[in-house]
Write a structure and sequence with these properties.
Blueprint lengths: L4 H9 L4 H4 L4 H4 L8 E2 L2 E6 H4 L7 H11 L3 E5 L2 H5 L29 H18 L6 H11 L3 E6 L8 H14 L3 E5 L5 H14 L3 E4 L10 H6 L3 E6 H6 L5 H8 L3 E6 L1 E2 L8 E2 L8 H11 L5 E3 L11 H15 L2
Parallel strand pairs: 2-3, 2-11, 3-4, 4-5, 5-6, 6-7, 7-8, 8-11
Antiparallel strand pairs: 1-2, 9-10
Helix pairs in contact: 9-10
């Protein structure tokens, strides 16, 4: 039996080898139910480039996780999608991954060595050359592979910087639109309004909003200057970081700014006076259930993104904890 490229993609995602494909009738090979993580009208998604800690994170393997975990919409961040598209390999990580995330009062990381700085500079230059010359249509193939399995992209995360040429900004927005995203996401640049002004102009050019993500610098006014610069400069609100930064007005902030929120990141953290740690959902101070119910009640259309950041307990792993979070969200939206 002959199979199309898309059918072989589905077989690969399901763990069926091409050699074994001919022994399965199409109805058997493709009978698995497509994932669905939209509950009560609220789209629950996942930050895929980040959440599957200590697990393979290539684009095909991540898609296998998503299908078996029942998650149908995602924010994907570098390097997963760019590695798939053939980007230059990154130098070794200068520091081990911090499972458990950014902690209140944690000491700063030591500065990079001269050798590490040189390696990073060379890598960034290689990435600029690659991004400004690669066929962005390559992402149409990635989109088709994911869409065929029932998974869509809503956010493309890439850290835009002032050092980048305009062509690299064009790449980011064109790649996001090619994947079918409704938004670009990036970290909020502290004390750099020139960058958010520049990003806003490109967002206007492509009619694609940018959601800025904040960590422990998050305050109710953090996004005001960027949003004043452009109607396309918006908020990617991480409610866990917002709580760990000492804010007690999460629901009020969402009600006030819902029209400028592109997506939420959902995690549970404690208030700083209680340590600020990342913890399993329901064990911290973040009003996750109340936020999800607010989104449902008001009919807000932005997705709510699971971001797995706490260290899995002994005997578990990141995927199992993601499934617990997904079940928590589903129950909250029942």
């Amino acid at each position: 039996m002959n199979y199309s490229r898309r059918q072989f993609n589905r077989l690969a995602i399901s763990g069926i080898s091409a050699a074994a494909a001919t022994s399965f009738a199409p109805v058997r090979a493709f009978a698995a139910q497509k994932p669905n993580s939209k509950f009560g009208g609220v789209q629950i998604g996942l930050n895929t480039g980040f959440s599957y800690h200590n697990m393979p994170n290539d684009a095909v393997t991540v898609l296998k996780y998503l299908v078996r975990d029942g998650i149908n919409a995602i924010e994907m961040q570098t390097p997963t999608h760019e590695d798939w598209a053939g980007a230059p390999p990154a130098p070794p990580r200068p520091y081990p991954e911090r499972i458990g995330g950014e902690q209140v009062g944690a000491p700063p990381r030591p500065p990079l060595t001269a050798e590490q700085q040189a390696a990073r500079k060379a890598y960034l230059e290689a990435m600029t050359r690659w991004r400004t010359t690669m066929p962005v249509s390559k992402y149409a193939e990635l989109r088709a592979m994911y869409n065929d399995a029932g998974v869509s992209f809503y956010a493309f995360k890439l850290p835009l910087e002032m050092r980048m040429p305009d062509a690299e900004f064009d790449y980011a927005f064109t790649a996001a639109k090619t994947l079918g995203c409704t938004q670009l996401t990036m970290e909020m640049p502290d004390g750099n309004p020139a960058l958010t002004a520049r990003v806003g102009k490109f967002a206007e050019k492509y009619k694609l909003p940018v959601g800025y993500h904040a960590h422990l610098q998050a305050k109710p006014t953090t996004w005001d200057e960027a949003m004043a610069q452009s109607a396309y400069n918006c908020i990617n609100l991480d409610i866990g970081h917002y709580v760990a930064a000492g804010n007690h007005d999460t629901l009020e902030f969402i009600r006030k700014n819902h029209a400028r929120i592109t997506s939420l990141h959902i995690k549970d953290r404690k208030f700083p006076e209680r340590g600020g740690q990342n913890v399993p959902w329901g064990e911290g101070d973040t009003p996750i259930k109340e936020v999800l119910q607010l989104v449902k009640k008001k009919g807000y259309e932005f997705p709510c993104t699971i971001e797995m950041e706490y260290a899995p307990p002994e005997g578990s792993d990141s995927e199992k904890e993601i499934l617990k979070s997904l079940a928590y969200a589903k129950a909250a939206l029942a």
